[in-house]
Amino acid sequence: MKMNRVACAPAAACVMIVGVANAGWSFRSLQPAGFVASNGYGVSGLQQAGSARDAMGASRASVWSRTAATWTDLHPAGATVSFCFGIADGQQVGEVILDEGGMFHASLWSGTAASWIDLNPAGVSVSTALGVSGGRQVGDALVGTELHASLWGGTAESWVDLNPAGKIESIAMGVSGANQVGLVKVGGFQHASLWSGTAESWVDLNPAGAADSIANAISGGQIVGKAFENGFDRASIWTGTAASWVDLKPAGAGDSYAFGVFGGMQVGEAKVDDGSGVGITHASLWSGSGASWIDLHTFTPANYSRSSARGVWASGGTTFVVGFARNKTTGFEEAVLWVNTPACVGDLNGDAQVDDSDFVIFVAGYNILDCADDAMASGCPADLNADGFVDDVDFQVFVVGYSKLLCS
Predict the structure, then answer these.
(1) What is the predicted pLDDT for the residue at 164?
(2) I want to staple 250 with a disulfide (CB 3.0 to 4.6 A). Which of 57, 78, 293, 352 is the partner?
(3) Does 328 share its domain with 347?
(4) Which residues of 102-124 are buried (b: 16+ CB within 10 A; e: fewer)?
(5) Overall number of domains in the chain
(6) Are residues 40 and 184 in the same domain?
(7) Which residue range forms the structural domain that includes residue 68?
């Protein structure tokens, strides 16, 4: 069935609901008013993290709550440039340059510019934080002339050097529980890597036969990234060993990469043939195999030429995928959010019907209104249009499901 597509004005908050055949997916731009470009890199709970670039070309670390209008500037006072690359458990991580001509410092926030913490270790000139989870942050630090994978626990003083003995380059990109993932350069090639808190715990995840590989994220025991094999970069999953490698490359696609993972879902990008012989990058979603691939770009308005998915999170049957897409009109990338709502909208307790028990849950959310309120149920399940509020619009959606009762 043909999709309904809309073109979005450059500064407009674009929301698209696709046609009946893909009725669960919607799309919106997170581009803040007054900025020329933006990127989304992570999502957790109600929030998305990334950066926004102003007309002067300066990037500002940013956080959103599902809509462009909720944009919050994380740029510390006195900084010249800042980026945000990861988000989890109310914390955001990235990098900040404090002075003109200065060096990047790994950085930690908890939702506001004023909360900024400089994670740069003593004696280190340059550092970056790329991932966060459970109060731990990972990234890299330039030690002498070597880039070393790094782990922090919320302060510069907590820094742990994860670089394996004898290796000249490593980067940690993701963290979950006691584990960290990233890459280590082995014999001149990047190898996807796993640690459990120390340099000595390093595990080489590079698949047999792969020339190189990178691990970008970890969640729920799944590690995602890419491996280069048989002429292609291939979106990949591991579960702790090199032998556990699974190739996610979609049939017929070119290079592909996985950047985020949550709840058994993986997101990234795949190059899709556009008839030019070059291919166009499309935001992608998998659920554990190449055959499970969903092309998220098909749910993106026609005014966007290419896209990439960088983070995924889900609650109550609703899936949120954050990334960015290039606006054909402006020529710049915009932070975007794809949202997939349950097939049975209004079934808030997952019992396959929309009845009085769901209404009780809905009313509780309606009376609170703001999804950011601490009193709101986790994941804000009654926010049926994913705009950050439980209001009359959500009630209209709920009534449709309530009147049908059964989900089947």
Answers:
(1) 98
(2) 293
(3) no
(4) eebbbbbbeeebeebbebbbeeb
(5) 2
(6) yes
(7) 15-342
Query: What tokens were used for 291?
Result: 């055959």
Give the model's pLDDT for residue 10. Answer: 35
- 243 DSSP 8-state letter: G
Residues 376 and 297 in one domain: no
Instruction: State the Cα–Cα distance between residues 82 and 59, nearest whole angstrom.
Output: 6
Residue 344: per-residue pLDDT: 83
Whose structure tokens read 């008013």? 33
> Can you give the pTM of this predicted structure?
0.86
Per-position DSSP letters for 16-61, written without gaps between them:
EE--GGGTTEEEEE-PPTT-SEEEEEEEETTEEEEEEE-TTS-EEE
**Up-side HSE of residue 120: CA atoms within 13 Å toward CB?**
16
Tokens standing for residue 363 = 């009313």
**Amino acid 318: pLDDT:** 86
Among 311, 327, 342, residue at a domain's last position: 342
Residue numbers in the chain where pLDDT is lower than 50: 1-23
Per-residue pLDDT tens over the stretch 113-151: 999 999 999 999 999 999 999 999 999 999 999 999 999
What tokens appear for 245 in the block? 């490698």
Q: Is residue 2 part of a domain?
A: no
Please indicate, yes or no, whether residues 315 and 367 belong to a single structural domain of this protein: no
In this predicted structure, what is the pLDDT of residue 175?
98
Label residue 138 exposed, middle or buried (CB < 10 Å: 0-12, 13-18, 19+).
Answer: buried
